[in-house]
Amino acid sequence: MECSSFHTLILCLLLLININTTAHSQSIINTLPGFHGTLPFKLETGYIGVGENDEVQLFYYFIQSENDPERDPLILWLTGGPGCSGFSGLVYEIGPLAFDLEAFDGSFPSFTLNPYSWTKIANIIFIDSPVGTGFSYATTPQAYNSNDTKSAEHNYSFLRKWLLNHPEFVKNRLYVAGDSYGGKITPMVALEIVKGNDAGFEPRMLLQGYIVGNSITNFSKDQNERVPYAHKMALIPDEYFEVASSSCHGEYVNPDPQNMQCLSALQLIKECLSRIYDAHILEPKCISRSGQLILEDDPVDLLSSSKQEQPLCRNYNYVTSYVWANDETVQEALHIRKGTITEWKRCNRSLSYEHDVESVFQHHRLLNEKGFQALVYSGDHDMAIPYLSTLKWICDLNLTLDKDWRPWNVDGQVAGYTMKYKNNEAQLTFATVKGAGHTAPEYKPKQCLAMVNRWLSSYPLYIDISMSELIIPTTFECLAMINDKTFLNDCSA
């Protein structure tokens, strides 16, 4: 571009400034509306441009570890959906802030501190991905089109650029983590990192493994396990299940349309489950006091209702995020670029998004073969993605069972059950979280922090140890503690 006059020169300079700003921006946030005083942790927000000409601008929240940022691992967190904001994972699952739901009356919400935040042990990047999620946006209409493959590539490009702008974290152990649909994209991003490292791209990332919770692997197969799960949890009678099992031949999602016996059995099962809350089978499904069933995950229409009309269900909790994130002072505090979005949504269900990858089973297999560690957990009361479907694909990996099914405890109480598999250097740890739904940290934050802390510290989950006691032991200390040589491989030499 040539600048032939003073005025043109000014325009050129403004254009260059705009390009630079669009490519990358970051801000340190010391205070937030709704939180009294200075934040007791380091929060950074910003945008990073990815894709052709940086047409996709991905927004993020980065929170430094409250323990030892220089040595603690770095986690890239992918929330589900697709289309659910990283802010949802931050305030409803694993971040240091949580809304004071008891005090919320429909006016501006306030925050409390989450004592079980994963930032107690790790640096975490919460990303609004794919494009169109949260505060992320595109500079052209075409750039809003996305899919699984593009989302994984964009997340990898984001992470590369983020690390180039934060070189102090390049040396930290890196993990990719996600739940629900984010758990589907997680192994895809991990493989993108592996490919980038193999190709010699800078910076070289110290990927150690990945974490997936209540995660989609193959949606059709995941949904197929809902019927066996409902039977195990006494939601349908033996008779219904036996007829469905024998007549449907194990195919409950896409049955033969000519098989009337199967279809009749599935209809009876559907009627039994119609008022069960998939995300947690023991919690009430979202029904207003007028008796109307609320089907949306995010009941935005409830913002205008009075407190007396509020439905008695978990979904109402998500209203707080709409009130907070759409407030002008909040967006100014977060340094949101004006005019880039019309309305913030916790989960954007109107994305231009193609599910182009049917299954990520092979992604899990490849990561295991390459020696990466994996933590796979499921809330045992989640019927949206039943733990049975997760166990099924893990079994199909044909790994060597290292530690069979056994309880893991927190404060002396059973927090769930765990198994561990190995394949040479790679280890895959599976855990259920007792009493948790979809997704587990939202329901059992204390137990999930203990679980991930033990795993990141190379402790077996079934050793009940507190946060203050948790240090990586020597082999001698491990043997003295548990007096069982079969556990030697679970300890760090």
From TrEMBL:
GO terms for biological process: proteolysis; secondary metabolic process. Gene3D superfamilies: alpha/beta hydrolase. Keywords: Carboxypeptidase, Glycoprotein, Hydrolase, Protease, Secreted, Signal. The keyword Ribosomal protein does not apply. The keyword Protease applies. It comes from the Eukaryota. PROSITE patterns: CARBOXYPEPT_SER_HIS (PS00560). Residues 1-25 form the signal peptide. Pfam families: Peptidase_S10 (PF00450). This is Serine carboxypeptidase-like 7.
